[in-house]
Amino acid sequence: QVQLVESGGGLVQAGGSLRLSCAASGGTFSRYTMGWFRQAPGKEREFVAAHTWSRDFTYSADSVKGRFTISRDNAKDTVYLQMSSLKPEDTAVYYCAARAFGYTRLIPTDLNYYDTWGQGTQVTVSS
Protein backbone atom coordinates (compact mmCIF):
# COMPACT_ATOMS: atom_id res chain seq x y z
CA GLN A 1 0.00 0.00 0.00
CA VAL A 2 1.39 3.36 -0.99
CA GLN A 3 1.81 6.14 1.55
CA LEU A 4 1.47 9.80 0.57
CA VAL A 5 2.97 12.88 2.21
CA GLU A 6 2.09 16.37 1.01
CA SER A 7 4.21 19.46 1.51
CA GLY A 8 4.55 22.98 0.20
CA GLY A 9 1.47 24.61 1.62
CA GLY A 10 1.52 27.99 3.33
CA LEU A 11 0.29 31.54 3.34
CA VAL A 12 0.46 33.55 0.12
CA GLN A 13 -1.02 36.79 -1.12
CA ALA A 14 -3.62 36.83 -3.85
CA GLY A 15 -1.96 36.65 -7.25
CA GLY A 16 0.96 34.67 -5.88
CA SER A 17 2.15 31.14 -6.54
CA LEU A 18 2.84 27.96 -4.62
CA ARG A 19 3.98 24.51 -5.59
CA LEU A 20 2.64 21.56 -3.64
CA SER A 21 4.46 18.26 -3.59
CA CYS A 22 3.22 14.80 -2.77
CA ALA A 23 5.85 12.16 -2.14
CA ALA A 24 4.80 8.55 -2.46
CA SER A 25 6.40 5.49 -0.91
CA GLY A 26 5.63 1.81 -0.70
CA GLY A 27 4.19 1.27 -4.15
CA THR A 28 4.90 1.30 -7.86
CA PHE A 29 4.38 5.01 -8.31
CA SER A 30 4.60 4.97 -12.09
CA ARG A 31 1.45 2.83 -12.23
CA TYR A 32 -0.67 5.03 -10.00
CA THR A 33 -3.16 7.61 -11.10
CA MET A 34 -2.59 10.64 -8.92
CA GLY A 35 -5.04 13.33 -7.96
CA TRP A 36 -5.28 16.54 -6.00
CA PHE A 37 -8.39 17.55 -4.08
CA ARG A 38 -9.13 20.38 -1.70
CA GLN A 39 -11.50 21.05 1.14
CA ALA A 40 -12.41 24.48 2.43
CA PRO A 41 -13.98 24.95 5.89
CA GLY A 42 -17.61 23.92 5.87
CA LYS A 43 -17.45 22.60 2.32
CA GLU A 44 -17.16 19.20 0.73
CA ARG A 45 -13.89 17.92 -0.64
CA GLU A 46 -13.62 18.84 -4.30
CA PHE A 47 -11.57 17.73 -7.25
CA VAL A 48 -8.69 19.93 -8.41
CA ALA A 49 -6.53 17.97 -10.86
CA ALA A 50 -5.45 14.46 -11.76
CA HIS A 51 -2.89 12.66 -13.88
CA THR A 52 -3.41 9.14 -15.17
CA TRP A 53 -0.52 6.71 -15.41
CA SER A 54 -1.87 4.72 -18.34
CA ARG A 55 -2.46 7.39 -20.98
CA ASP A 56 -0.46 10.25 -19.51
CA PHE A 57 -3.67 12.25 -19.41
CA THR A 58 -4.51 15.15 -17.15
CA TYR A 59 -7.81 16.42 -15.79
CA SER A 60 -8.38 19.84 -14.26
CA ALA A 61 -11.34 21.42 -12.56
CA ASP A 62 -12.81 24.37 -14.43
CA SER A 63 -12.12 26.61 -11.44
CA VAL A 64 -8.37 26.09 -11.74
CA LYS A 65 -7.83 25.67 -15.48
CA GLY A 66 -5.13 27.97 -16.75
CA ARG A 67 -3.87 28.58 -13.20
CA PHE A 68 -2.97 25.18 -11.74
CA THR A 69 -0.86 22.47 -13.36
CA ILE A 70 -0.39 18.90 -12.22
CA SER A 71 2.80 17.08 -13.07
CA ARG A 72 4.73 14.07 -11.87
CA ASP A 73 8.29 12.86 -11.64
CA ASN A 74 8.29 9.07 -11.62
CA ALA A 75 12.02 9.00 -10.86
CA LYS A 76 11.27 10.83 -7.60
CA ASP A 77 7.92 9.17 -6.88
CA THR A 78 6.44 12.63 -6.56
CA VAL A 79 3.46 14.47 -7.98
CA TYR A 80 3.26 18.25 -7.99
CA LEU A 81 0.58 20.88 -8.14
CA GLN A 82 1.89 24.18 -9.44
CA MET A 83 -0.55 26.90 -8.44
CA SER A 84 -0.40 30.42 -9.82
CA SER A 85 -2.66 33.48 -9.86
CA LEU A 86 -3.97 32.31 -6.53
CA LYS A 87 -7.26 33.68 -5.24
CA PRO A 88 -8.69 33.84 -1.72
CA GLU A 89 -11.25 31.23 -2.75
CA ASP A 90 -8.39 28.78 -3.33
CA THR A 91 -7.89 28.69 0.44
CA ALA A 92 -8.32 25.10 1.58
CA VAL A 93 -6.59 21.99 2.81
CA TYR A 94 -5.13 20.30 -0.25
CA TYR A 95 -5.01 16.52 -0.37
CA CYS A 96 -3.07 14.19 -2.58
CA ALA A 97 -4.69 10.91 -3.59
CA ALA A 98 -3.62 7.78 -5.41
CA ARG A 99 -5.15 4.78 -7.12
CA ALA A 100 -3.22 1.76 -8.32
CA PHE A 101 -3.87 0.31 -11.76
CA GLY A 102 -6.98 -1.78 -12.06
CA TYR A 103 -10.45 -1.58 -13.50
CA THR A 104 -13.07 0.77 -12.12
CA ARG A 105 -16.09 2.47 -13.59
CA LEU A 106 -15.24 5.61 -11.69
CA ILE A 107 -13.20 8.41 -13.20
CA PRO A 108 -10.28 10.33 -11.69
CA THR A 109 -12.38 13.40 -10.96
CA ASP A 110 -14.41 11.38 -8.44
CA LEU A 111 -12.94 11.21 -4.94
CA ASN A 112 -14.24 7.66 -4.60
CA TYR A 113 -11.93 6.65 -7.44
CA TYR A 114 -8.96 6.84 -5.07
CA ASP A 115 -7.97 4.36 -2.41
CA THR A 116 -5.13 6.18 -0.68
CA TRP A 117 -5.00 9.71 0.69
CA GLY A 118 -2.38 11.94 2.20
CA GLN A 119 -2.83 13.93 5.40
CA GLY A 120 -3.30 17.26 3.60
CA THR A 121 -1.48 20.57 3.53
CA GLN A 122 -3.01 23.95 4.27
CA VAL A 123 -3.01 26.67 1.63
CA THR A 124 -4.17 30.12 2.70
CA VAL A 125 -4.51 32.95 0.19
CA SER A 126 -4.88 36.42 1.65
CA SER A 127 -6.63 39.23 -0.18
Q: Which percent range fits the helix content?
A: under 10%
User: Tally of extended strands?
Assistant: 11
Structural class: mainly beta
Task: Give the percentage of residues in beta strands.
Answer: over 45%
Number of helices: 0
Distance between the termini: 40 Å
Radius of gyration using CA atoms only: 14 Å
**Would you list the SSEs in sequence order as H and E?**
EEEEEEEEEEE
Overall form: globular
* Most strands sheet: 7 strands, mixed
* Uncertain residue ranges: none
The residue-averaged pLDDT reads 95
Describe the structure.
The protein has strands at 3-7, 10-13, 18-25, 32-39, 46-51, 58-60, 68-73, 78-83, 92-100, 116-117, 121-126. It is mainly beta. Strands 2, 4, 5, 6, 9, 10 and 11 form a seven-stranded mixed beta sheet that branches. The chain has a four-stranded antiparallel beta sheet with strand order 1-3-8-7, with no helix packed on it. The mean pLDDT is 95.
